[in-house]
Amino acid sequence: MTSNPSNILNPASAYVHIPFCRRRCFYCDFPISVLGNQRRGETSGTVESYVDVLCGEIAATPKLNQHPLSTVFFGGGTPSLLSVPQVETILTQLDCRFGIAPTAEISMEMDPGTFDLEHLQGYLAAGVNRISLGVQALDDATLESCGRYHRVADVYRSVDWLHQVAMPNWSLDLISGLPHQTLTDWETGLSKAVALHPHHLSIYDLTVEPQTVFAKRYQPGDAPLPTDEQTATMYRLAQAYLTAQGYDHYEVSNYAQPGHPCQHNLTYWRNQPYYGFGLGATSYTQHQRVSRPRTLATYGEWVKDFQSTGGIHREPPTPPMEQLLDRLMVGLRLQEGISGDEVRSLCSPATWATLHQTLKPHIEQGFVIAEGNTWDDLHCLRLSDPEGFLFSNVVLSDCFRALEDLRDC
């Protein structure tokens, strides 16, 4: 259910950030570099140079894992803008440095309209066996209002190719709470998505991030954005509809058919260590979280410095209180929750008592489920579905505030 203590210092996963996009979507604040509508890995010197620097970082990273990697995740950005040889080069470098298990889940985020059947066949041959398709919406007007590059026809063409190559595991992303989106629009989109038969669905609620186009146009909760009540109804609607269709709501924003949860993302939510590579990426090894710079130039300089130090990170280990807060923040996202023993192991007596008092009203409301005869006999701590998941930010904010004065315990 939760992380195995023997794996705490044994990374089994690698995240690889590919920061290139056709354009920047209106809601996006990710670290990306815009290529325009024509260029991609086969024709861009910028992409080729980045792959070289990225592989240099991989080669300079000390090998900490005792066993080959069990998951690799190409995130972005738009990794499907890479050429097949570039994907092969990165996977070969990872395999040479850390090993990749024959049964490893190798995921790749892809946007409709940025690849063709030949690319998909090449990625599959290179070892990619799980695709996360960034659909976001299934009507052209909404896609246009979000600044998306693709259109609905591209989605159906991409899904048809996924079925043609018999992709063993693929996911589809949708966003709720978009401008002008109604409950009827949302219900229709969910129905269309399920009809495509994805193994997995990720359902994200729009967050209006600072410095984005949406932040300049809209205030959260004001028209044409749906109200908070409407987005909460969208969340409940998705939970009821998708679970009725046989999808397991295994994480706040994620649903999977039996046997198809994203194994790589489970690494994050179980607070297990992982390597992170590339511009803006974060790694978590030896109790250290290390974030890379968010621009191409500063990332390149960071890699040079990293190579010159022999692959040594200068950040201090994460303090125990931060480990507890991290564990609560990611672990309570999962339907399975966190084991009581693990929570207790991260707490001083004062922290344990404070956490209980903080969570008590949420337990009484039914947002938090504490399994066990008493708090001191806690077996598992988890959030209820859907209400606990829906108000997870409230629960976590209360925990963070209450534990603020105990960070040095």
Describe it.
- The strands form four sheets. A nine-stranded mixed beta sheet has the order 9-10-8-7-6-5-4-1-11, with helices on both faces. A three-stranded antiparallel beta sheet has the order 14-16-15.
- Helix 2 runs parallel beside helix 3 (117-126).
- The protein has 409 residues and is of the alpha/beta class.
- The protein contains 15 helices and 16 strands.
- The protein is globular and about 60 Å long.
- It folds into two domains: 5-269, pyruvate-formate lyase- activating enzyme; 320-406, Arc Repressor Mutant, subunit A.
- 41% of the residues lie in helices and 19% in strands.
- Residues 1-6 have low confidence and may be disordered.
Largest sheet, spatial ordering of strands: 9-10-8-7-6-5-4-1-11
Q: How much helix is in the residues?
A: 40-55%
How much strand content do the residues show? 15-25%
- The counted number of beta strands is 16
CATH H level of the largest domain: which superfamily? Answer: tm_1862 like domain
* The CATH architecture of the largest domain: Alpha-Beta Horseshoe
What would CATH call the class of the largest domain?
Alpha Beta
Mean pLDDT: 94
Oligomer classification = single chain
Return residue spans where pLDDT drops below 50 for at least 5 consecutive residues. 1-6
CATH topology of the largest domain: pyruvate-formate lyase- activating enzyme
Given the C-alpha coordinates, what overall shape results? globular
The radius of gyration is 21 Å
Q: N-to-C terminal Cα separation, in Å?
A: 28 Å
The domain tally reads 2
Q: Which structural class do you get from the secondary structure elements?
A: alpha/beta
Taking the sheet with the most strands, its summary is: 9 strands, mixed
Number of helices: 15
